[in-house]
Design a protein that fits this description.
Length: 415
């Protein structure tokens, strides 16, 4: 009887393995959030959101986007050389960022219009390096189908972050507690995934000549996908900066909590599906991919829609009850952002199709408009109340993602 309930397809098994780990990992931040919102102020969350936004913009491009190519070669010996290439780029960029922070520290603080972020800028290069390293390790472990270890790494990461953030919260050190938890959790997850690579005895296969060969072979990744990733990171960073500048650090904290709490349960399913989705299409032919995409969109919409409907209808009451009355605005923002985040959940894994079919140039053009239009909206509506701006923002982003889905089917039809 029990055997009949077990998933039969490898795709479903792998998704469930990652989702189990992700469920536990995401449950921990959700469980401690009511504690954190009482230990830290909206201003603390605002500083943390700005720090994460800055590190994310560089962390996503830290490896020159060569981590995406780790999945493509047939031989592990080739994949480890691509990973080494990404690592060298990561170290170089992180050291360069440290130099920039040291030289232009005061100018960066002035540009961000946020004195509270000043001491934490020196930790940006550290976090960027750890993010880049995680992306490399994550893709290699995904390539080898070490899904159980990927799940464990996420759990260890969440536990480490929770312990540090709560501990520092009780001693009232402000945003430092949130940022320290972030960095400590990155170290834990990287350590877990690195031992898998070391166990394979592939590090001795790394050769300078091979790294150069693969740098040339997959040069479209830094040429097209890197600008696309940078633009994506730039969008989030600018939105955070503009909310903090045009409204307040407190409102940035409200926005940050709303976004994080809505994205957390959706990323529970989306993160696992994205990883297995990419691995699946990497090994599939064109006919199979068309079927996989259609099936994915239908299933993703069916599974996620009830959750987003609940948030859309009761977000304000849920946030006030769980996090306290001072976070009521975050609940209203969560309600407003629900349509955008629903379409974002559907489209997030689909971007890998543009890599599979070598259409990064089309993805780059879309990313440009997807970034610049909301930024223009914030400048145009800077004198409006934040909740009004959020309504137009959510509507704009939803429409753009519907266009993105149309582009995906255009690419599949063309192929």
């Amino acid at each position: 009887m029990i055997s009949k309930l077990k998933p039969k397809s490898e795709f479903t098994k792998n998704v469930l393995t990652l989702m189990t780990g992700t469920t536990i990992a995401q449950a921990i931040p959700i469980a401690i959030s009511p504690i954190l919102t009482r230990l830290y102020t909206p201003e603390d969350f605002g500083v943390f959101a700005l720090f994460v936004a800055i590190t994310s913009i560089f962390g996503s491009i830290a490896n020159g986007r060569y981590e995406l190519a780790i999945m493509l070669p047939r031989r592990d010996e080739d994949a480890i050389n691509i990973m080494a290439l990404g690592f060298i780029i990561n170290v170089t960029l992180s050291l360069f960022l440290l130099l920039i922070v040291i030289i232009f520290h005061d100018k960066i603080v002035s540009l961000l219009n946020n004195k509270e972020i000043s001491p934490w800028l020196y930790l940006v290069p550290v976090s960027v390096f750890l993010m880049g390293l995680f992306n490399l390790l994550n893709y290699f472990n995904n390539r080898k189908k070490f899904y159980k270890d990927l799940a464990k790494a996420k759990i260890y990461k969440s536990i480490g972050m929770a312990i540090v953030q709560i501990s520092f919260g009780f001693v009232k050190v402000g945003a430092f507690g949130l940022i320290s938890g972030q960095i400590f959790s990155q170290i834990i997850s990287n350590t877990k995934l690195f031992f898998n690579i070391k166990r394979l005895n592939l590090l001795k296969k790394i050769k300078k000549v091979k790294m150069i060969v693969f740098a040339k072979r997959y040069k479209k990744l830094p040429l097209y996908n890197l600008p696309n990733a940078f633009i994506d990171g730039f969008r989030l960073t600018m939105i955070n900066v503009l909310i903090g500048k045009f409204f307040s650090l407190s409102m940035l904290g409200q926005f940050s909590l709303a976004l994080r709490m809505v994205q957390t349960p959706s990323s529970l399913m989306g993160g696992a599906i994205s990883q297995v989705f990419f691995q699946k299409i990497s090994m599939s032919n064109k006919k199979e991919i068309k079927y996989i995409v259609k099936k994915f969109i239908f299933k993703a919409a069916l599974v996620s829609l009830p959750l987003f409907i609940i948030i859309f209808l009761f977000g304000k009451n849920i946030f006030s009850l769980i996090f306290g009355e001072k976070w009521k605005v975050a609940g209203e923002i969560a309600q407003i952002l629900t349509p955008w985040l629903f379409f974002n959940f559907l489209t997030a894994p689909l971007s890998t199709l543009f890599i599979k079919f070598n259409k990064q140039d089309i993805l780059l053009i879309f990313a440009f408009f997807y970034t610049m239009l909301p930024i223009f909206l914030f400048f145009y509506m800077e004198n409006y109340p934040l909740l009004i701006v959020m309504k137009y923002f959510s509507l704009l982003m939803s429409c753009l993602l519907i266009i993105f889905i149309g582009l995906v089917f255009f690419i599949l039809k063309d192929e």
